[in-house]
Amino acid sequence: MNPLLSVVERKLQALPVTTQLVLPDGTVLGPPDPRVRFVAHDKAALAHLAEGAVGVLGQDYVEGRVDIEGNMRDVMAAASALLPGSPVDAARGGWLTELVRKVVSVWRHSVERDAKQIEFHYDLSDDFYGLWLDPRRVYSCAYYRWPDMTLAQAQEAKLDHICRKLRLREGERFLDVGAGWGGLLLWAAENYGVDATGITLSRNQHAHVSRLIEEKGLAGRVRVELLDYRKLDESVPYDKIASVGMFEHVGRAQLEGYFAKLRRLLKPGGLIMNHGITAAGVYNAELGNGMGEFIEKYIFPGGELTHISVVMEAMTNGGLEEVDVENLRPHYARTLWAWSDALEARLPEAARILGGEQGERSLRAYRLYLAGCAMGFEHGWIALHQILAQPPATGRPDELDNPPDLAYPWRRDYMYEAGR
Asked: Contact 266/391 with Cβ under 8 angstroms?
């Protein structure tokens, strides 16, 4: 047998789920009733399979060089077993790699490039996202306060978790940076009575949220702007600020400037909540084995992962003091599986909505993206951190006495008490 095929066959036999491979000439390797089937149309895909380059194999799938059949949970179980090692370690580079990454990070995150990158992802199709997101279209990690929560319940729990951490109060000026489809913006306004402003670079999201604001009769108290964060007016600061699923798009080289901008937008004594995906490795801005390249090419162009230590360093240098940090990694794994399951259940509708050859590629990419990210969070290759921060201390002795001009009480029980 061909040496390459021998390697592939040994790998298939060692996988935790029964897996079959159909070669370009029709030859079948593996059991007759597999849980996962790879149908290779290109010999190059066989090399990627043998190497365990699962991200490159994912590109082969998107481009039609290989078909992958089976339940996505089984597919991901096979994919994780194919890897030659941790994708975190595989992405680690030396000082020269870090220097190149910093230069690229600066270059790729101009106002114009960021707008195009956001449009690429979020303006794909509102109807498509509506198939698998919860009714509020909250496109970020949910909070499973109880294990048996539905996705919709867990997303509402997340929105409330953020509002509680920020200690939102009626009449406060609240800013949501990267407001998405308006879930947090509207929840805060309707349940906490704040005066809320959201910004986004997605035209689809801006139109959607604007429509909801009018339908809910909130036009006098809630607004959404199609605006880059760098252009936010600093003349009238906010009481509380949330940044949810936003800083991943900012770029590692811009993080200090980003947090400094949020600091200038915040009133003295106010609070900022930063909720976002973080890297498991201190030195890698993406996952290895082709996984980072897959995300960059098909899902989030310009997205960069940053370790929590680097995020906190950037926050500190940006003039903020971190007062509470929470890792929600397994919550995001469960959220992503809920999204993946919902999409898998409605594949024919998704194909009709996206339509055409490009739509088929997008659908294949999202199937792997959602399930692959769920796998990544389960394995700890990536994480999700909520960081609550405030302006730095000023030397006052009454911080523990809950003075009215300071928002943070230095006690966690307020986040979990039954009432608001």
From this structure: yes
- Contact in structure between 273 and 245 (CB atoms under 8 Å): no
- Residue 128, burial from CB neighbour count under 10 angstroms (0-12, 13-18, 19+): buried
C-alpha span between 59 and 42 (Å, rounded): 12
Torsion, Cα 76 82 84 90, to 10 degrees, reads -30
| Antiparallel, parallel or unpaired: β 28-29 and 222-226 | unpaired
* Two tokens, residue 77: 């179980």
Rounded (10°) angle between helices 183-192 and 203-215: 20
Catalytic residue among 45, 373, 375, 382: 373
- How far is CA 334 from each of CA 37, 87, 305, 314, 378, rounded to the nearest angstrom? 25, 21, 20, 29, 9
Rg (CA), the chain: 23
Whether 265 contacts 237, CB under 8 Å: yes
Question: How far is residue 36 CA from its own chain's centroid?
Answer: 27
Q: How many CB atoms lie within 10 A of CB 282?
A: 12
Q: In Å, what is the CA distance from 101 to each residue of 107, 184, 290, 304?
A: 10, 33, 16, 10
Residue closest to 287 by CA, chosen among 367, 380, 365: 380
Helix (H, G, I), strand (E, B) or coil at 19: strand
d(CA 98, CA 96): 5
CB-count exposure of residue 169 (10 Å: 0-12, 13-18, 19+):
middle
Return averaged pLDDT per consecutive 10 residues of the chain, 420 residues in all.
79 88 90 92 85 83 90 90 68 44 44 50 77 96 95 98 96 97 98 97 93 96 95 96 90 89 97 92 60 69 78 96 96 96 96 89 90 89 94 92 93 70
Structure tokens at 18: 């029964």
CB 159 within 8 A of CB 165: no
Cα separation, 126 vs 147, whole angstroms: 29
Q: How far apart are CA 91 and CA 94, in angstroms?
A: 10
Q: Which residue has the tokens 């996206």?
A: 354
pTM as predicted: 0.88
Contact 178, 246 (CB under 8 A): yes
Q: Which residue has the tokens 């308006």?
A: 182
Q: What length is written for the chain?
A: 420
- Can you point out the beta strands (E) in 231-297? 238-244, 266-279
Is-catalytic flag, 373?
Answer: yes
Rounded to the nearest angstrom, the gap between the alpha carbon of residue 230 and the centroid of all alpha carbons in its chain is 21
